[in-house]
Amino acid sequence: MAPEPIHPIRVGHIDDVQELRKSKPSIIPERFVRDMTERPTLATPMPCSTDIPTINFSKLVKGTKDEIKTEISQLAHASENWGFFQVVNHGIDLSILESIEKVAKEFFILPLEEKKKYALAPGTVQGYGQAFVLSEDQKLDWCNMFALGVVPNFIRSPMLWPTNPENFSESVEVYSTEVRKLCQNLLKYIAMSLGLNGDVFENMFGEAVQALRMNYYPPCPRPDLVLGLSPHSDGSALTVLQQGKGNSVGLQILKDDRWVPVKPIPNALVINIGDTIEVLTNGKYKSVEHRAVTHKEKDRLSIVTFYAPSYEIEVGPMAELVDENNPCKYRRYNHGEYSKHYVTNKLQGKKTLEFARIRTKSQTT
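That's the Fe2OG dioxygenase domain-containing protein sequence above. Prediction below.
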């Protein structure tokens, strides 16, 4: 079951952050100004991000037995305690990463009238513009987005695949194929880290759904008032983030009730656990809230891939991870149903996962 279409609120020129940036506003439009409780505290020294785990993918694939064992143990620690990790030596040729970054930049610098040819189509969540805007009074993110469905073929909207830049589609195809292989391999090792057969997720997911989103964050004259991307967890199984070269530190994750910046490692990919893996592992591996902040002088580009089960698949905690000491925390549900729920709600931390959570008596009284 594919998610039913939704009808996002249309955003006008005044709400396109690149156009706003060109006008060099001295005052941030009210639509972007966050409530005091939501504003990033940029002046406060942030916790060190060096503890965010790093996985050496080449050691997982072709290391010694001891190296593989060590990396799988590190993967388990990252998935259970952080929900985030960076992957180095991931096997994707750097020219492929450079190509997708190049066409993304070229797309975002196109004139607005050209980008509007690929605007969020009525009844879909694909295209150019602001995502998850469901009401006229909702605060907007200081970000322009461009999203495409990639796999399976029926979720594609061919009219939204740009012909300018000329090699945009080719770059997306090559990049997406490589990232898909990486997701499949990572899920194999994640399964092994849980003591399960390596092919359990591949067999369960069917033809996995894959989508791509490019985010562009222009500099903001008052980064203390806005958010580049609202706090949220991802509805996917895995999310793969490529941070553009020379990026300022914009990604932050919520760890022990503190926002921790994720410092980019050159040529690494950032992976995060999505809601689907949290449900399947009965909460052992957790999806984590994350957000993006802006910079006064530097722009930021990110390319995000979402990898999730087929819409027809029923999802619920795996029997191997439910026992008397760890009772079932989530109900079973159709993944397409959850996808529809996710895209028809604004980004609000982990609130969308309440859709699946089983409430205990203490939580309902």
